[in-house]
From TrEMBL:
This is Phosphotransferase. Residues 1-54 are annotated as: Disordered. It comes from Streptomyces gelaticus. Residues 109-305 form the Aminoglycoside phosphotransferase domain. Residues 25-38 have a biased composition (Low complexity). Pfam families: APH.
Amino acid sequence: MYTASSSVTAPPRPLRPLGAGGGPYLAPHAAPSAPGAVRPRRPAGGPVGPPLSGRLDLSGAQGAQLRMAIASVHRICPEFNPVQVLRRSGRSVLLVGSTGRASAVAKCLLDHSPAWSERFRHEIAAYRAFVRHRPPVRVPRLIAADPENCTLVIERMPGRVAALTRHPSEAPPRADVRAALGAISRVNAWRPAPGLFDAPLDYASRIARYHELGLFTDRDLGDLQKLLHGLAHAGGRQGMGQFCHGDALLSNILLSPTGPVLVDWEHAGWYLPGYDLATLWTVLGDAPAARRQISQLAQASGPAARDAFLVNLMLVLTREIRTYETAVQRAMRDSVSGAGQDRPGALSSSEEQRLLLRRLHDDCAMARRAVRAAVGTR
């Protein structure tokens, strides 16, 4: 056994391309408030969530799983003292605790299927890269990592989450959107050292797959392929790439007086320009002013940047539609079986998801018209 006074990591592994998805993990999710209730504002400088106190429930089957996760953390960081479970899902568990006098967050993978394991290792590789090559935004400091057992321990950053949900039901404050856009723009302008990051998204394959699934029409396929062909010529031999966070949701941005903090880097890599902006545009459906600002920013560099943004927007919107169609079907099955009980007088979760899905379809139709207009001007 040894103390982890400095970064303790297992032997490095190379970065590999990965798919999209993921979520925040540096702050616990707050419980939804009652209709009409005023949610108290968190102090800007303090850590999100309750203070470091309480007990871990290690009883039962879930307790055994939790003990295994804690043991995997202690193998790489013996001084980690777990205090709370931030989040637990079928694929991972996140613990908040301390290492000495500092707060830390440990993330342990529970589902060791190849896809999730590679995604987890990609996130570890990103934090390792940030040790020597600091990005132009604040990121959590790596404390310890084990790619083989898929265990990660990082610094717990102070701040409040810019949004608690993937698709905020209310427009965020303009100052929060402005801070998020500023941080994302700095990331997109960064040029990390060659070889640190790969391209997580194969655009041609993703477009072809969505066409095979019936999510894209034949005309969508032809239009997007034409835009990709034009972008390949515009980029020359080096291609037209931009470094992106890969999951630029407001729920992955912590706001503090010392500046925004970006978390959840498991999808970071090289994309067509505007991928992060397309992600932000997609989740800000109730903030038309912010959407206009994002669109103007995405098109400021000329027609090629506009075309890249539109390709990204079609892919991101289609991915969200596919995700929430599955969620609506699951919610309908739960309502039939009586598994889910909603608050009296409030919208049911399935109804909220249906409304969101309708908005995503409207957004996708608007993006499709913009793609066709862009093809017509080539």
